[in-house]
Write a structure and sequence with these properties.
The complex is a heterodimer.
Chain A lengths: L3 E4 L2 E4 L5 E7 L6 E7 L5 E8 L5 E2 L8 E7 L2 E6 L8 E9 L6 E4 L3 E5 L1
Chain B lengths: L3 E4 L2 E5 L4 E7 L4 E9 L6 E7 L4 E4 L2 E6 L4 E6 L8 E9 L7 E2 L3 E6 L1
Parallel strand pairs in B: 2-11
Antiparallel strand pairs in B: 1-3, 3-8, 4-5, 4-9, 6-7, 7-8, 9-10, 9-11
Classes of the chains: A mainly beta, B mainly beta.
């Protein structure tokens, strides 16, 4: 099936630093990718919709200046957590749809566990 | 926007028994309802999905039913096995095009051997 690759799998950083997470569609083109955040034992919460060649759409309450999203190509979207703080520690996971109009399915990357010290 | 409620939050069954997880959604325009299985620290894996033009879908031991009138859908797992133990999420998506999914709160299924 379709594969969505995400790197890194985990990262530990100091408070105040920035972290970049990459999400790639390996065998298909994705004009739209979705970034979710998941806190321990909780559900997946949509952060933003990444659109190739245009600005991302952020969900209410998500700071666009803190979570920078770039979707420069049809196979790559990046999420940069700027000036990270301990409260940003979470599991970040990207996703993309593949398939035709009547059978499209959403596949997830492997996720990135971010720990901010 | 869409709101998806999922029950129960935890479910413990004996190996071989059936498990049922239920979800309700708020937006009658929702037309796509996938189910994901997530093991600890791993990505959610799509296990089955159903679209609004179908009332039921089955894949081996897993089945999903959809009641559009009542706006609820359910996941049925028969002959449960210990490897079915995981967190299961329902989701809903509405409208045309590839819109983001709204997820339920998750059900932690424990299959006792």
């Amino acid at each position: 099936g379709a594969v969505v690759s995400q790197h890194p799998s985990w990262v530990i950083c100091k408070s105040g630093t920035s972290v970049k997470i990459e999400c790639r569609s390996l065998d298909f083109q994705a004009t739209t990718m979705f970034w979710y955040r998941q806190f321990p034992k909780q559900s997946l919460m949509l952060m933003a919709t990444s659109n190739e060649g245009s600005k991302a759409t952020y969900e209410q309450g998500v700071e666009k200046d803190k979570f920078l999203i770039n979707h420069a190509s049809l196979t790559l979207s990046t999420l940069t957590v700027t000036s990270a703080h301990p409260e940003d520690s979470s599991f970040y996971i990207c996703s993309a749809f593949t398939g035709g109009a009547t059978n499209e399915k959403l596949f997830f990357g492997s996720g990135t566990q971010l720990s901010v010290l | 926007g869409e709101n998806v409620e999922q029950h129960p939050s935890t479910l413990s069954v004996q190996e071989g028994d059936s498990a049922v997880i239920k979800c309700t959604y708020s937006d009658s325009a929702s037309n796509y309802f996938p189910w994901y299985k997530q093991e600890l620290g791993k990505r959610p894996q799509l296990i089955i999905d159903i679209r609004s033009n179908v009332g039921e879908k089955k894949d081996q031991r897993i089945a999903v039913t959809l009641n559009k009138t009542a706006k609820h859908f359910s996941l049925h797992i028969t002959e449960t096995q210990p490897e079915d133990s995981a967190v299961y999420f329902c989701a809903a998506s509405w409208g045309a095009g590839r819109r983001a999914l709204t997820f339920g709160s998750g059900t932690r299924l424990q299959v006792q051997p």
